Batch of 2 targets.
Target 1
Amino acid sequence: MLIDQMFIPYSFIEKEASHVEGFSPELALVTIGGGKELEEKLVVRPTSETIVNHMFTKWIQSYRDLPLMINQWANVTRWEMRTKPFIRTLEFLWQEGHTAHATLEEAEKEAMQMIDVYTKFAFEQAAIPVIPGRKSRVETFAGANRTYTIEAMMGDKKALQAGTSHNLGQNFSRAFGTQFMDENGQIEHVWQTSWAISTRFVGGIIMTHGDDAGLMLPPRIAPIQVIIVPIWKKGDEKSAVLEAVDSVQKILKEAGIRVKVDDSELRTPGWKFNHYEMKGVPVRIEIGPRDVTNKSVVVSRRDVPGKQGKEFGVSMEPSVLVNHIKGRLEDIQASLLQKAITFRDSNIIDVSSYGELKEAIAEGKWARGPWSASDADELKVKEETSATIRCYPFEQPEGTKKCFMTGNPAEEVAIFAKSY
């Protein structure tokens, strides 16, 4: 279902006090339309909670209408002062979900389920070892009771908020009067969630796995998993090489592998090697006259540079070739994830004092430590170090803890880092 409303009346945004306060600096306003001043200014949609609630109020009457769940891909606009491709842009595309439930427990279950979905996608498909957790009060989405997040470490060690899920409680339903009659005939306000992941995740993939040669795409999300480059020098070698290339391409396609052949004669094989490395294609197959004679191919891995990543004499026999390529694709997927985990873990420092946090942040690392200090203390850390609480991770260490800022008992550790 799609609620395609790019312009939202400003009065909608104003209905939920913390929502308008949180988003005011990022709003783009329309005051003139058709050459005339508008009676009510419009907001270019920064997020859809308000317009969704306007519609939910019309659609929901009874407990039989619940849960009501919508999912949409929508463009939103936020007035960023410092833009960065993919990561912080004025306008971006995202997947945006909104749900309404009869109870707080159902809403909480939905919010947690979606952050689990995002976590699983990050690990299993994008090979990004995100840290899932709960945002602090200061960092909670404007209008939400709780915000859950997945935080990813980029190649420059900055944190990227890669996806969020919010338990909105009844904040928006009370503001908009979104009510239903329960099974006992009582009128209640619905409990809601919203969750989103955006094109920012594309930037996350680039900055997690890329290197000086260009992109490096995990095989499970790569549009092209295998590029085949034919090689010949003499005219009489061409037909035999292309025939072998065609055969290998068909074998791999029939096995469900996303494969492309670049048989263009406008560029040299060396140029093509560099080109597809830059585009991040996980596996390259080279087939030349000698390979045709030997009924074999040369296989190169994008994630292992130079001769170390090359295998010679891989048989063209269909079952052998398919198993070999599928095995290599899985190896690359696992290798990229493990490399990212190792990089992440080696750049998180456990701290037990504010001085240690400052030192860790100054070195460009993430700092992890027990925290039970006030919102004012959290803002002090941000002001003095530019680092924020990225999350309270779901996975918490056992044992008693003491807040590194105040020395008071702490129930949880928090992760601090600079972010985009």
Target 2
Amino acid sequence: MLQRLLARRVFGGSSSLRCLSRGFSQLAEAEEGNVVVPKMPPFDYTPPPYDGPRTDEILRKRREFLSPSMLYFYRKPLNIVDGKMQYLFDEDGRRYLDAFGGIATVSCGHCHPEVVEAVVKQSNRIQHSTVLYLNHAIADFAEALASKLPGDLKVVFFTNSGTEANELAMMMARLYTGCHDIISIRNAYHGNASGTMGATAQSIWKFNTIQNGVHHALNPDQYRGIFGSDGPMYAKDVQDLIDFGTCGRVGGFIYEAIQGVGGILELAPGYLPAVHGIIKKAGGICIADEVQSGFARTGSHFWGFEAHGVVPDIVTMAKGIGNGIPLGAVVTTPQIAKVLTQRNYFNTFGGNPMCTAAGHAVLKVIEKEKLQENAFVVGSYLIERLKSLQAKHEVIGDVRGRGLMIGVELVTDRQLKTPAKDETFHIMDQMKEMGVLVGKGGFYGNVFRITPPLCFTKEDADYLIDVMDIAMSKL
């Protein structure tokens, strides 16, 4: 690439390039072939030189010692060695705009100083103490977290991940209602353990193992769904599942207000209020999976379900809760929480002082830096600019989302909505070469998932748009 060639010519080798904070990827008007690359927004941070293993060595070890099921992006995988706020740095010191946020996980920003300080301070004091002993970190965070939820949602159980949180929530629903049947939505993703894999409804994420007691309703997909944006029409399928697929009673209904892995699909308006009513009538409880849409990411609200005017019985969360620290939680009512006292239930690391200290710091940073407001303002601006880009490029079939949880679906034919899977991979790779990292998802793998840290700026949004425009123009 041009910046490496220039580095070797001017500075005598790649080791000198690694010492540059912004490198030649930030040169205004730097040319990649015949393409003029726009200038990346300025950023005042210089990562320390990296002297660790290089990409080839890491790939060799990964192939030999790690599970072959582990995936990685791009034709030339990235070796990310440093991060600060909305930016990442590779082994050569090259800066990248992170518009994926570790799969909607980095909420405050990479290595946010206040979150780092909280982790270090707690780690220096005590890293782990079982919840069989008392420690203020878990209680303080639980109190702060409960204050962010509506109604009687005030009892917290900490886990290590979203999968664990959803497993626990589904078990609690079954115990509380005495019914085994759970209703989920097609195209959903809720985790990769036994129960959550059953609730997940995409074949690419499911193994041929026993997954019983889960029924999958029509997805209220406003882009591809048969009823468009008519939420109550989709809700009728939930009633049909109860009438014809169960004994007439159910344990619960689990949903993502915005499907993340499924391609950033917001459930059709009117759907959740209708389904909540149907589930309650059938004796079940409602579980909101906020693993990706929670913690101010949608901008308009702190939680995704709030945009639909409903209050669930259980809320699960992870990812953004810890800004990258392994942490998840289940929040429910005191009445439902009591079901876990029927037997002993325990999680060794759930409520770990170091993790809960980080989670508490995240809440404080979101409030202090008004990141929910920023997600709304910048996200709205980015969606508007993406829709303008859609008018220019036929390959963009749909732009959707809220705040900084945005999906861009690519198609080869707008009328037929034919998934542009190969084009998605190619554009994504080209964007990486120009310094922008996005994710991808959807059942067909043709949706860009834009879920950056909530400190993302309008200047970052402009740079993303310019790079995406160039990449699409090269198709």
